[in-house]
Structure formats: C-alpha cells, structure tokens
C-alpha cells in the first residue's frame, strides 16, 4: 500500500496548516509537531485528519517509535 506523510495528505486535500488545525481541533503548533514527527499523533486525531483529508488513516505514514528496551523485554518474556 502506498502511504504519504501527514503534511502531504493535508496539502493534497488543499488545506493550509492553520486551517486544517482548526478543523481537526488542535493548535497550528500541535499540527506542525505532528507533521514534523516531533509529537506522536493520537489515533483519534489521526482519524479526524484522515476524514478531513478524504483518505483512509492507514494511508498516512507515521513514524515508528522504537524504544528498544520495552520491545525486547516484551518479545523475550513468557508471562505478562
């Protein structure tokens, strides 16, 4: 599946950052953080953005967060 960045999805839908932020319900600074991968976007906000931009949320490429220790410990544990 082809994925595009959050910023590309916004631009393709014809929205300026400030306008999109208001419609999604976040500040322009917060949306900028999401688009620059400096802030992790909550799933509810991602769904709002995808709906506004007219694309499925799984078409938006998100950063992968690798914290190392948790992932390794989770995979190696036999009990939870």
Automatic annotation (TrEMBL):
<dbReference type="GO" id="GO:0003677">
    <property type="term" value="F:DNA binding"/>
</dbReference>
<protein>
    <submittedName>
        <fullName>XRE family transcriptional regulator</fullName>
    </submittedName>
</protein>
<dbReference type="InterPro" id="IPR010982">
    <property type="entry name" value="Lambda_DNA-bd_dom_sf"/>
</dbReference>
<dbReference type="InterPro" id="IPR001387">
    <property type="entry name" value="Cro/C1-type_HTH"/>
</dbReference>
<dbReference type="Pfam" id="PF01381">
    <property type="entry name" value="HTH_3"/>
</dbReference>
<feature type="domain" description="HTH cro/C1-type">
    <location>
        <begin position="6"/>
        <end position="60"/>
    </location>
</feature>
């Amino acid at each position: 599946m082809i994925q595009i960045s959050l910023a590309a999805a916004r631009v393709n839908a014809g929205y300026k950052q400030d306008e999109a932020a208001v419609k999604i319900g976040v500040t322009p600074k917060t949306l900028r953080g999401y688009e620059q991968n400096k802030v992790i976007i909550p799933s509810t906000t991602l769904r709002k953005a995808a709906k506004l931009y007219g694309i499925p949320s799984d078409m938006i490429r998100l950063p992968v967060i690798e914290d190392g220790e948790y992932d390794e410990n989770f995979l190696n544990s036999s009990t939870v």
